[in-house]
Amino acid sequence: MDVKRIYLASASPRRAALLAQIGVEFQVIAAEIGEDPLIGEPPEATVDRLARAKAERVAQQTAAAPLPVLAADTLVVMEGEVMGKPAGENQALDMLARLSGQRHRVLTAVALAWNGVTQTRLNVSEVRFRSTTPQERQAYCLTGEPMGKAGAYAVQGMGAVFIERIEGSYSGVMGLPLLQTAELLSATGQPAWLIALSAQQ
């Protein structure tokens, strides 16, 4: 099958940049869904469910012009508790204080909806923060970067200075694990890095 393009069910510039990195041509169509976890739902189940829901929502919206739909969802988990996107500076400061000198997990699920079937892959990475001072955390919040980021930091941004160690996938911590993404895209008929080459022929 000659797949020329896919839909990316995300408005995240980080996911778009990562997808472009592996040579995939795509069109962004953001998926609007509720992202609240269900009561008693494990984080792994939550991130899988949300990625799947995003992909399927865009697949429904684009049924008249069907293409594979790729979606992802990321959660930061600290001692079993999901740390979402901070609602404001005070919450961001609290999150960063909790992460200071500690390990946490970053869960990113990738989903591909195509031909009425949705497949998912889960990537789990462990991140260790160095100890940070209140002054550092305050200065970081003043940059605005923690807002809108799960766990109140961006591994690809200024928040990288707090990260002592990553065990797992850097791209997964960014929000789109490329190994699992390529595996899913290969199921459409081609390895991910050949999709762009086919489009140029």
Commentary on this structure:
The protein has 201 residues and is an alpha/beta fold. It has a single domain (6-199), classed as Maf protein (Alpha-Beta Complex), CATH 3.90.950.10. Helix content is 35%, strand content 24%. The protein has 7 helices and 7 strands; from the N terminus they run βαβαββαββαβααα. Strands 1, 2, 3, 4, 5, 6 and 7 form a 7-stranded mixed β-sheet that branches. Strand 3 and strand 4 form a beta hairpin. Helix 3 (89-99) crosses helix 4. The two termini are 14 Å apart.
- How many distinct beta strands? 7
Separation of the first and last Cα atoms: 14 Å
Contiguous runs where pLDDT drops below 50 for at least 5 residues? none
CATH topology: Maf protein
The CATH level-2 architecture is identified as Alpha-Beta Complex
Which sheet architecture does the biggest sheet show?
Answer: 7 strands, mixed
CATH C-level class? Alpha Beta
Number of domains: 1
Secondary structure blueprint with pairings:
Layout: E1 6-8, H1 13-21, E2 26-28, H2 43-61, E3 69-78, E4 81-83, H3 89-99, E5 103-114, E6 117-129, H4 134-142, E7 163-167, H5 170-174, H6 178-186, H7 192-199
Parallel strand pairs: 1-2, 1-3
Antiparallel strand pairs: 3-4, 3-5, 5-6, 6-7
Helix pairs in contact: 3-4
